[in-house]
Amino acid sequence: MNHDLRIDHHSEIPKYRQVVDLLVSDIEAGIFKVGQRIPSINETSGELLISRDTVEKAYVYLRKKGILVSVRGKGYYVGQVNIHKKIKVALVLNKLSNYKRSIYYSLSETLGSKASVDVFIYNYSIGHFDEIVSNQMIHYDYFVILPYFKDDDATGINIIRKIPKKKVLLIDRNLELLKDYPVVYQEYEKDIQTALETGISLIRNYKKINLVFPLNQYYSRNIARGFQIFCQVNQLPFSIIDQLQESDVNKDEAFVLISDDDLYRFIKICRIKNWKPGKDVGLVAYNDNPVKELLEDGITTISTNHDAIGWFAAQMILTGDFKRIKSPFEFIQRNSL
Questions:
Q1: CB-based contacts of 254: which residues, under 8 Å, 6+ apart?
Q2: 38 or 11, which is more confident?
Q3: 3-class DSSP state for residue 222?
C-alpha cells in the first residue's frame, strides 16, 4: 500500500471510505494488478492503525463493487482495474453567499454524473484554510479555490502551493503570485468601470453618484478604485460611503451598493421617505440574483456571470484544458435606474 497515504482521523470522511480510496488509488497506480492478492484485513489494519472491522467493511464494499474478489481461506484479490470512479472535487470558499451558491450549482450541474462536488468554507481564516487543505489533500482529484484571506495573501498562497499544482483551479481572484495557475477571474477595477460606462446615459440623469462600500467587509478595494476612476473620467460628482446612514440618502442622487445588507437598508430608507428607486433616487446593486430581479419592480445590477464561473471551471476539469479565463461582467438594466 502507498505509504505516503494515511488515514485522517479528523476527517469527516468515514475511515472505511478512506481505506476504499487508498486501495482504489493503489489499484489505479498499478501497485496491485488483476489477480494479485492484496494485504490481508489484519495486515492493513496494523499498517493503518485502525480497527479490523473498519478494514473489513472497506473490503466488503469493494467486493460488492466487483473491484475485489474474495477466496475462502486465501484472502482478497483484485478483480478489475478498469475502475470508473467519479472525479472528486473540493470547492473551497471564503464564505457562503447567493453568489457562491450559484457557482456551486453551475459547477455541479455541468460536471453532472462524472464528478461529485463537496463544499468547504474557511470563513477568511488562514488556519481553517490550512486545516482543510492538509486534511483533504489526498481525498480529492481537484481543488477549486476562491482565495480570499483578509490581509494575508502570502500565507494563503503558500498553503495553496502545498497542493499538487495539477489539482488546483482558482476562481474569482486573479493573484499575481499565482499567475502560473489556471483561474476563472474577475477584474474588479476594470469590470465596474466597463459596466457603469454601459449605463452612463442613465447615470447622468442624477446630480451625484455614490458608492456604498463597507470597509468592515472583505470586498476587493479595486472595486472602489475602479468606481473612482469611472467618475473622474466622466467628470461626475461622486462620493464613497463606508456606513450607510439615512442622512446619506438624498433625492436625485444615484447609489451603487456593494453589500446586500446595505441594499436592504437603502430600500427601507426609501420607503420611510416614500421615495421610489428609479424615480426619486437611482439604485444599482452589485452581484445579481433572482431576488433583485423582483425587488422594487426590478433592481438594476452590475454583476459577474456567476453561472459562467462554475461552467468554465467544470469544463476545464472535464476536458483537462486548464487555462486563465476572464469571467463575463455585465450591466443589467431594470427599473431602479
A1: 203, 206, 208, 209, 210, 281, 282, 283, 284, 337
A2: 38
A3: helix
User: Nearest Cα to 122, choosing from 100, 103, 149, 140?
Assistant: 149
Of the given ranges (70-74, 197-201, 239-243, 307-311), which has the lowest mean pLDDT?
70-74
Helix (H, G, I), strand (E, B) or coil at 63: helix
Count other Cβ atoms within 10 Å, centred on residue 108.
17
Report pTM: 0.73
Question: Which of the pair, 194 or 64, is modelled with greater confidence?
Answer: 194
Domains annotated for the chain, with CATH where assigned, are: 15-78 (1.10.10.10), 87-186+306-328 (3.40.50.2300), 188-304 (3.40.50.2300)
Region of residue 172 (phi > 0: left; psi between -120 and 50: alpha; otherwise: beta): left
Helix, strand, coil % over all residues of the chain, rounded to 5: 45, 20, 35
